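Contributing: when you submit paired examples, paste them exactly as shown. First protein:
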Amino acid sequence: MRKVPAPPPRRGEERRSWLSGAPPPRWVRVLPPVLVGVICAATLVSDDRLDIGFLLGAIPPLAVLSYGPLVTALLCGAVIALLTVPAFQLDRPGDADLLTVVFVSVLSVFVSFVRSRRDAQLDLERTVAEAAQRAVAPPLPERVGAVRCAGLYRAAQHGTLVGGDFFDVRDGPFGVRAVMGDVQGHGLSAVSTVASLLGAFREAVLDQPELASVAGRLDRRLLVDSAGTRHAELFATAALLEFSADALRVRVVVCGNPPPFLLRGARATELEVPPWTPLGLGLADAGAIDACTVALRPGDRLFLASDGVVEARDDSGAFYPLADRLTGLLAEEDADPATLPERVWADLVRFCPDVEDDVTMLVLVPSPP
């Protein structure tokens, strides 16, 4: 299965603009030298003295936005030279005006130096933060054992890669197992809980022979994490799946999470899975949790979505009709499972432009070698 390209960002979560720390657009960078050139050309061509010297006062502040201290100093020097060269006759500034321009130029060079140092530090911190977040939730592989995978994750907090949702697919001695969940809260405050749960899941995949026992391990992990903090009340919803070795059967456990959808042909059917309490309440007794076993046919797919998808509402307050939209998307000519999360996301933001919760989608396609 080919990798899914990054989906277009939703409104309010565009790529960083130049007003938010990204490099300025090209037109901002070329504006100072272009302005210098236009003023020089206009004054040299005109027979009369042009009162346009005031435009030169905008060049030092504009240079600060785009250039480092060296280039800013060169542009500021050009401005001072243009004001003092008699051939240009730009307003013939007095001593006070010239000193003002010199002061603004020196101040602009200093501000450019400070901005350059700060931008370098912010870039370093952003790189470290992205590396740490990707270590918590690494990219989903295209295939895990006999299961092909495609996923999509959109954190609610702007500028972050990880929020309160999580998913993972791992191969172990008891088959391929997948988890999707949503912890209490979202954004960076929930990252530590997500990291703890994912670590517990990856260990349980190797140790626990029963899928219900994996849910019990996650439940205990949350209880231990919240034991040392008064009124912590950590909890999480989750859906866990376990594929047989031949990928013809899947066992499903749902703990407060929306049930998976079985995609068969052009029809999307929500699996009837006995629900269980969310994780972290101390109720996940492995012997009491019911696991639903579903027989799979060639071409079947499983679609999982977080509550950020099923609970999204439009302006009228109506919930996003995931089952109906899945059926419509499956009927399209381009029914590649790898692109399904991206197409659902595009449809979701049309239905509800202001999605305020973490959004996670996962498509699992049984595909024995």
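Second protein:
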Amino acid sequence: MLNVDTGGADRAALAVLAQYRMATTEQMHLVVAPGVRIEQTRRRLAKLRQEGLVDRITLPQAGRTRVWFATQYGVDVASEWPELREWRPPRLVADRTAARLRVGHALVVTETGLAFLQDARRRGDVCRPLDWIPEVYHPLGGGEAVIPDALLYYRTSGDGEGGSMLRAFVEVDRATMGPERLAAKLSAYARLHDYVPTPVGRSRPRGADPLPEESWRHRYARFPRLLFVLDGTGPAGIEARMNALHASAHFTALHALLSSTPVLVSALTDILRDGPSAPVWRPIQDLGQRVSWMDAYRLPAAAERPVVPEPDRSWPAQWGTPRS
């Protein structure tokens, strides 16, 4: 058998960096190669930079931390790979100035994804590096869209054969907008939950076809959980943001979403301290509760639909199994 080094580790690193937008050297190491010495990750990133696939900026205010991102060439290469089939190449990702201006939010999103990834490794669950997908586009018609900070794919190891398939939209808030604007994001998700595309180009004869379904059903078996992760402010600011989400939970327009979908909020500090599977989340309808984001997903019977087979999003075997 021909033994050829196909550069699988380099490919894995580029795929993750392109999809995650930005990551520090340490974050990249913990995502793609936690079982080896960090020097190997540094060498790999330097090699990819020499080949023009990735670049970096340096943060002087953070001990000269290096932050990596894919170049336009790297984006073009990675966008051809089947493992990134749900990924939309971002605009200006390869621009150093744009990278510098968005680095704070991007690194917190990466840190949040890393928390879920490491938690899954500890628990024996399945959440591969490419199961954290930032900025997945969900159209609402008329040029509008919902673009969560990240979409999470997760499979638990318990609950019977094969475990449970979980999905979550994740919104990371760093206190750059007022509490009311944060809470207003709920209305966008409520619209996505109810949005039915209008047929284009033809009228629908009475009784000819079943009513069209909500657009999200073509992608998900169930509407993903909605998780708000709060950072960038002290305990009082965190509490104010949670209260704003709680107040908006009483709006009539959110009833369908909240009656069928867990909407939870947590401080990033709690997630990093205890792990995202711990009871660090509060349902926005009842902030007095503390639950795990994995708590049972209960849908009204009328909302049940046949389960749609999930796409194969496994970490490619030729890349090896990430070790914790």
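If you have annotations for the second protein, write them as plain sentences, like these:
The longest helix spans residues 96-123.
The radius of gyration is 21 Å.
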